[in-house]
Amino acid sequence: MFSIERWQEIFEGLAKNKLRTVLTGVSVASGIFILVILLGAGNGIQNGIQKQFEQDAVNRISVWAGVTQKEYKGLGVGRNVQLRNSDYEYTTRLFKDYIDRKSAVFSVWNGNIVYKEETGNYRVEGVHPDYQFIENASITKGRFINQNDISNFEKNIIIGQKVASDLFKKGENPLGKELNVSGMIYKVVGVYTDPGGEREESRVFIPIATAQKAYSAGDSIRSMAFTLRKGADFDNAVAESQAFTNELSTFLKARHNIAPDDEGALVINNSLEQAKNIYIVTGGVKAFFWFVGICTIIAGVVGVGNIMLIIVKERTKEIGIRKALGASPFSIITMILHEAVFITVIAGFSGLIAGLLVWEFIGPYVEADFFTRPEVDFNVAITTLIILIVAGAFAGFVPAYKAAKIRPIVALRGE
From CA 85, how far away is CA 103, in angstroms rounded? Predict the structure, then answer.
């Protein structure tokens, strides 16, 4: 029940010891402030990692051939392994129950592209239609490669937004325009954007059959990329991707006479497994931040508890008189708890607001590859307020209990 007299007592007590009250409040406020800053930083790390994985499909499996590092079946070290169309075709048939999206890739890192007076070097990739989804690319104009382009060796090209802005000035529409790519003419049929930004948008895609023919590659491919069917949950999806990776590695190593334990001859990258490992690490970082923040808050709460013990000692006679006049132990406890919770909540709330304001004004300007949008969401703020209330009650309980145990005759007799 609201009591004006109780609040008057609290404010009078705080006013008598302004410096002590301020220092105690600062210790609590700094604890909450540090906690909010650390939690915002933890979210920034997590957001940054999520942004990195948004560049491609999160369940992507990529395969590259390398150079053998171990002798096997009479074949020496240093042998170049070459993936071919047949590897891609056999793989997609054999593992069709695992695979959702699929594409072989033939890439040229420095393809010279010319449009009128504009020229530039960009990565040229020959791919299948599914590669749009594996790369998480979004078509903004036109379309992506289709199966007809591959079957008929069409000279169609899809360009990234960065390529479009470099070659087509003054807002010229790229669709239907012809580009000279390493001496061959291609028609622009699509423009795409990519979450990875300009680095990912500095590429062009052409049908893989056209690329192999244009660059005299025969049936050679540089790599293969797959996404897997969605699992029932994250752990199940990771387990299935690991099983697919192991079976794919065994299959391809057997086809190319590679030693089973030769890690350099065939590189398989499992983004889902990487995501799990990184999320475990970031979860540990956030847990550590919570631990540091809570420890800082505890230090402030201990300070509040010590102050309340001093207050109880100073008001021993007053408490004795209250009890002699009929005040119950419960009313004494609530009086002390009320003051402790008030100090803790007001100081902590100030620290909470200060921390939120820091991330509100500074957060949008903090950007790095693995750190972006540091923020503290509403649920965390509510959790912090609950921690404050519990901390205030905890800080005042021991002093309040001690006050309730004071005997009136002893309190009145003491100096």
Answer: 10
Question: How far is it, in rounded angstroms, from Cα 194 to Cα 263?
Answer: 31
CB-CB contact of 208 with 217 (8 Å): no
Mean pLDDT of 388-401: 71
Tens digits of per-residue pLDDT, 313-337? 666 676 677 767 676 767 777 777 7
- Measure the CA–CA gap between 49 and 31, rounded to whole angstroms: 27
Distance CA 297, CA 35 (A): 8
Residue with tokens 């007809």: 148
Q: What is the pLDDT of residue 232?
A: 57
What token pair was written down for 152? 């008929």
Q: What angle do CA 353, 356, 358 make, to 5 degrees?
A: 110
Bridge partners of 157? 188
Q: What is the CA radius of gyration of the chain?
A: 34
How many CB atoms neighbour CB 154 within 10 A? 18
Average pLDDT over residues 106-115: 90
Cα distance between residue 335 and residue 265, in whole Å: 75
- Per-residue pLDDT, 312: 67
For the residues of 4-42, what is the DSSP string, one character each?
HHHHHHHHHHHHHTHHHHHHHHHHHHHHHHHHHHHHHHH
The most confident of 205-219, 300-314, 361-375, 379-393, by mean pLDDT: 205-219
Query: pLDDT > 90: what percent of the chain?
Result: 33
C-alpha 166/C-alpha 161 separation (Å) is: 9
Q: Helices 316-324 and 271-314 meet at what angle, rounded to 10?
A: 70
Q: Which of 137, 106, 108, 96 is nearest to 226 (CA)?
A: 96
Query: Can you give the length of the chain in residues?
Result: 415
Query: At 294, phi and psi to the nearest 5?
Result: -65, -40
**Residue showing tokens 């590669």:** 131
Encoding tokens for residue 60?
């992507």
pTM of the model: 0.61
Segment holding 50, helix H or strand E: helix 18-54
Cα separation, 101 vs 135, in Å, equals 11
Amino acid making up residue 280: I
Helices (H), 315-328: 316-324
